[in-house]
Input
Amino acid sequence: MKLIKQIGVCLVLISLLSACKKDDNNDDTTNLALLLALSGGSTCTVTAGGVTLPIATVTPTRNTSGSPITFTTSTGIGLGTVQVIGAVAQDIGTLTATSGNYSVAVYKGGCPVNAASNLAVLNTDYSIQSGSLTTVAGSASIKFLVSGNYTLLLTTANNAQGSFGFAP
Output
């Protein structure tokens, strides 16, 4: 009787273990989304290359010296967005990097962002007043030439810190 019980327990264990499957899914996106949701910060969904990620975002208000930019870091790359809501033609925004540096891509419209479309056109939708958006190492200024909403997608590889504010 004891042997029959052991065989029964072994059969149950084998059937349970055989139902398990190896899951090779990369859960970085899920973990990143969970981390951002628990942190209480706001996010902007960005789709690039078929991958959609929630990215930390800031929406600056006028008459402020600068809203701190928050970067979401995954596999050594920091991503952040700045949502410019209701830009008026000729508005000037200033990007600063207090440490490290970052690059900026400008998209027309608000969040969510699809990197394959809605890329704003330099000297049509916006212009660079000073510095460079390829590498913001100190400060750079951007002038919005067309009224509307814009999303700035920032990328850093060196834990940059910075802010965005409207010029008075």
About this structure: The first strand starts at residue 43 and ends at 48. Helices lie at 2-18, 28-39.
